[in-house]
Amino acid sequence: MHATTPPEPPVRLRDLIDAMRKLGKAMRDTEPKAAHVSDARGAALAVTTSGGAIVSMNRSAAALLGYTGAELAGKRLADIAHEDDRADVERQLYAFDANEPCRSSRTFRSFDVTLAGRTGHRMPLHVYQQTFASGDADAPLRLLLFVEPLPAYGETTPPEAAQKDAYSRSIWLTRGQQRERERLAAELHDGMGQALTLIKLMVEDARMRLRRGQADDAAQLLDAAVLQIRDTIGEMRQICGELRPLALERLGLPAALSTLCRRVEQSVETLRVVLSCGVEDSEIPEHLKADIFRIVQEALNNIVKHAAASEIRIELQRDAAHLLLSIRDDGAGYHTHPLRPDDASSNGLGLIGMQHRVEAQGGAFTMSAGDDGGTEVSARWRL
C-alpha cells in the first residue's frame, strides 16, 4: 500500500464547495441523460491527490466499499482494486491517447473503474472527477463522485415519447431499489450476521466453561458478549436510521426537526437553536422529507463541531412555487475555516454531500458568509 502526506496548507472549504458546483454543472452539461443509483446515505465522495492517493473519503463512499474513511486515507484507488483491474484503474487515472496527450489534466472528466470491496467482491463504478486547487499551486486535488451505473435495458417501443420516458424512469427506479436491497442484505449478512454469530459462539463457550466450573472465565466471556451486543444494537439502529429516520416516520418532518433541534440544544449548554417552520407536513413532498431532515442534521453537526456558534436559526417556509430551507449560525464562518484532512469527511465532504442531495432533487443550494460573521446554508426546491 502507498501512503501519502496530505497537502499543506489545507484546502479551503469554499474551494471544495465550488468544485462540487462545477462538477454538478459539468455532469448535467455533458451527460444529461445519465442514469445511476442514489444511495440512501447520500453522495459517495472522495478527495484525492493528482496521483490518485485518497486524502479523504466520506462515509457513503467508504461504506460502498465496506471500509471506513480512516482505513482508506492515504491509499491509492488502485490499492482498492482487484489485482486483475489495477492496471486499468491506473490507466484511467493517467489516461493518454493520441488526440489528448494528457486527459488526466482536464478539469472535468468521467470514466469507469472496477474497485473491490473488503470481501474482494468486484464493483463496477462510474466516476465523475473535478480538479481543483489546493494550498499548493503545484499539487491540485481531485473531487470524485462515485455512482453505480445502471445496466442497459433492451429497447422499448411504447406508442408515445412521454410514455417511453415514464417507462425508463420506472425501470431506473426499480433497479435502484433492487441495488439498495442488495446492499442492505450485504450489510446485514457481513456486519450483523457475523456479529450475531460471534455472540452465539461466545455464549456457548461461556456455557461450557460454567459446566466445567470455570465461573470467572465464563463471566469474562459474558461481559464481552454484552459489549458486543451493545455494538450490534448500535449498528442496527444506524442502518435503520440511514434508510429512514425513525422520528421522521413517526412524527412527520416539522416535529422531527423540532425534536432534532431540542436534542442538539440540550447537548450544548451554550447553544440556542431556533426553528421556524411555516409549512405543514402534508404540504411537503414525500420525496423531499428525508433529504431535508438529513441536510438539517448534517448542518447542525457541522456547526456544533466547527463553528463555535451561540445561536442557530432554521427556517422552513414556502411561497407560491418553492419550498425554502435556511440554516444560519453566528459562528466563525466557513470562509475562515481551513479544511484539514482529519475533518474533511465530517465537514467538507458532508457539506458537498448536502449540496448533492439538494441538486439531485432539482433544487438549488447556496452557502454564504453572513455580514456580521457566521454562515448561511440555504436550499430551494420548486414545488
From TrEMBL:
Record key words, sorted: Kinase, Transferase, Two-component regulatory system
Annotated InterPro entries: HATPase_C_sf, HATPase_dom, His_kinase_dom, PAS, PAS-like_dom_sf, PAS_fold, Sensor_HK_TwoCompSys, Sig_transdc_His_kin_sub3_dim/P
Domain of life per record: Bacteria
PROSITE patterns: HIS_KIN, PAS
Domain Histidine kinase: 183-383
Pfam families per UniProt: HATPase_c, HisKA_3, PAS
UniProt record, GO biological process: regulation of DNA-templated transcription
Domain called PAS: residue spans: 30-93
Molecular function as annotated in GO: phosphorelay sensor kinase activity; protein dimerization activity
GO CC, alphabetical: membrane
Name of the protein this chain belongs to: Two-component system, NarL family, sensor kinase
